[in-house]
Structure prediction request, 279 residues.
Amino acid sequence: MSHTAHIRSHRKPRRSASTIAMRAGVAGGVLSTLAVAGASGSANAAEPVTQTLELPTLTADLAAQVAQSADVTQQAAASYELQAERDAAAAKAAKEAKADLADAKKKAAEEKKKAEEAARKAAAERASRSAERATLSASADTGSSDSSGSSAGSSTSTSTATGSAAAVVAFVQSQVGDAYVSGGTGPNSWDCSGLVQAAFKSVGVDLPRVSQSQSTAGTQVGLSNLQPGDILYWGGAGSAYHVGVYVGDGMFVGAQNSSTGVVKASLDYDPPSGAVRVL
Prediction:
């Protein structure tokens, strides 16, 4: 025993068993916690964490929606394509219509020019006929006062139509100015034989339709012995290519051609080859 043991203040306090046990438990708990933490840390360090993402499952409804969307897209594309084709067709039609309109205007201008030219020629023909009438009238006056009697010109220029012949003359003269159309038989357009046939039909005489036959339809007469209503022909008898009607005073009426139409002209304007008398 220490020599100070008997002194109370110098004695070390004794620890109780419960205190020692409590401290041992605490220490053991701490060590256990550290051990678990260390083990957990080692385990976490050895095995990396893997995260798994779950994708949505393609259900039957979702597949139907996708298919429907694809159909709608395809229909829209087809609609756009059809509209584009229609627009292209409309543009092409408009272009063609514009070209047709331009052609129509051009043709109309050409037709107008032709009509104006025909009118100018017709006016020139009328002026020429008026001058010829004046000349023939002067010649007739001179012939009638001439002591020599001046022959055939006087007989044709002073002849006057009567009866059916007068009606034929009146008919053809009423058609002067009508158009010439090949094969025309009236009432406003004629060819040469169509006009002659219609004139004689107006007095009840049926003539053949064509010039060749009309040139032999009556009695042949000389050009110096013509009477109003006689049929004039150009070419040979039976092979004539043109006919007209003598109307007196050295004049005839005939459907000449598409440029002049039906005209009244002097025999000198287009001398005929012969004549036949039907009435």
Notes: The CA atoms of residues 117 and 138 lie 31 Å apart. The radius of gyration is 64 Å. Residues 133-158 have pLDDT under 50 and may be disordered.
